[in-house]
TrEMBL record, chain A:
It comes from the Bacteria. Coiled coil: none annotated. This is Malonate transporter subunit MadL. Pfam families: MadL. The gene is madL. The chain crosses the membrane at residues 5-23, 29-50, 62-81, 93-113. Keywords: Membrane, Transmembrane, Transmembrane helix.
TrEMBL record, chain B:
The keyword Membrane applies. The keyword Nucleotidyltransferase does not apply. NCBIfam families: malonate_madM. Residues 7-251 form the Malonate/sodium symporter MadM subunit N-terminal domain. This is Malonate transporter subunit MadM. Keywords: Membrane, Transmembrane, Transmembrane helix. Pfam families: MadM (PF03818). It comes from the Bacteria. It comes from Fusibacter ferrireducens. The chain crosses the membrane at residues 12-33, 39-58, 70-90, 110-131, 138-158, 164-186, 198-218, 230-249.
Length: 122, 253
């Protein structure tokens, strides 16, 4: 059933965030250190394992696909709640620092990307 | 009476209203993308439209939470908030291939470390060049350039003034907004077309919202790879900036 798919992602989110908060507390900084990353890793490991052993039913997968499909609309809503006025009025330093760091980082992408020995597939 | 009922609908069902409003924004944006012959730009245009609406709403209400500060659109805070965002981001990992992750492990980790250090140094240098010479101020602005979460975390830890913390948030927001807007345009130039470069990109830029938005507009298939490294970036930044980063700056200032 579709709800199983939602439940699987919920399970991964809770376990991943638990690890994230645990690391945060251990290091003495408040918050969730990489919890979403851990959750994604758990989902990938889990789904790759299940795939080899028959895989989830079509309807269970649909539950996960529903969430993925909502992803872009959620990003649009997220863009709508940013403090864009503050970004524009933070003074030139915010613009220069944010802008140079962003564009500089982007041009480092192909340089470090070369470290990958072979091209990966989508 | 009619207008009263309509306003009741918006305040009673805020999340449903947000779904409807986002659907409308996307409908108009994809239509526009089709008209100008750039079908793939639909989601990028929708994100820019939402940012423009957030700017107008911010000017109009004086609040800091964009459209959601308007009572009728308070549901945006829930739909676009971190709970749904993280839930949906995690789901995109479904279908990612384990072999791809293994191949991108080394470049991804290098990108993560270099990304935090690079942004912190660039932000600190610019802060110094623009007249901030106190190591606490410089470190806070440098940390804000890492992400708008690392900035306040560092500023609070070091005891920076609220004006400096606000500046650091602004620098991070500029980074996030800029990333969402320019990623689809320069994707080709920086070879952002496969999972490895997507992981490197997520590790170098780091701002989760910016990376997720930028990749969604470029190629939704790349979102899980970029988002995965990006989520570690804020954690690493919060760890390094107030400690090693600050001590490093103190040697020079």
């Amino acid at each position: 059933m579709e709800i199983y798919g939602l439940g699987i992602v919920a399970f991964c989110m809770y376990v991943g965030s638990f690890i994230g908060y645990f690391i945060g507390k251990t290091l003495g900084i408040s918050g969730n250190v990489g919890g979403v990353g851990f959750a994604m890793l758990i989902l990938i490991l889990l789904s790759n394992y299940v795939e080899k052993n028959g895989g989830w039913s079509e309807r269970t997968k649909n539950g996960i696909y529903l969430l993925s499909a909502l992803y872009i609309p959620i990003v649009v809503a997220m863009a709508g709640i940013q403090n864009v006025v503050a970004a524009f009025s933070g003074g030139s330093i915010a613009f220069v620092a944010g802008g140079v760091a962003t564009i500089g980082s982007m041009f480092l992408v192909p340089v470090i990307g070369k470290l990958g020995s072979e091209k990966t597939e989508k | 009476m009619i207008s009263e009922i309509i306003s009741t609908l918006f305040t009673k069902y805020p999340l449903v209203g947000a779904f409807g409003a986002v659907a409308l924004i996307m409908l108009v944006s994809y239509w526009f993308a089709n008209v100008i012959g750039q079908k793939r730009m639909g989601s990028a245009i929708a994100i820019v439209v939402a940012l423009i609406l957030a700017f107008i709403a911010g000017k109009f209400t004086g609040g800091s939470k964009g459209i959601s500060d308007i009572t009728y659109f308070s549901g945006f805070a829930l739909l676009g908030g971190s709970m749904f965002r993280d839930f949906a981001i995690i789901s995109t990992a479904f279908g990612a291939k384990l072999e791809n992750l293994k191949k991108a492990g080394l470049p991804g980790s290098v990108a993560l470390l270099l990304g935090v250090v690079f942004s912190f140094i660039v932000g600190s240098l610019i802060a110094y060049a623009m007249g901030y010479h106190d190591p606490v101020d410089v470190a806070t602005i440098g940390a804000g350039t890492v992400t708008f979460i690392v900035g306040p975390v560092t500023g609070t830890a070091l005891g920076a003034s609220s004006e400096i913390i606000a500046l650091s948030i602004a620098a991070g927001v500029v980074k996030s907004v800029l990333t969402m807007i320019i990623t689809p345009f320069i994707a080709k130039a920086i070879k952002l077309d496969n999972p490895t470069t997507a992981m490197v990109y997520g590790g170098l830029i780091g701002t989760t919202s910016g990376v997720a938005g930028g990749l969604a507009a470029t190629d939704p298939k790349l979102v899980p790879y970029g988002a995965m490294t990006a989520t570690f970036y804020t954690g690493l930044g919060s760890l390094l900036c107030p400690s090693i980063g600050y001590m490093f700056l103190k040697l020079f200032l």
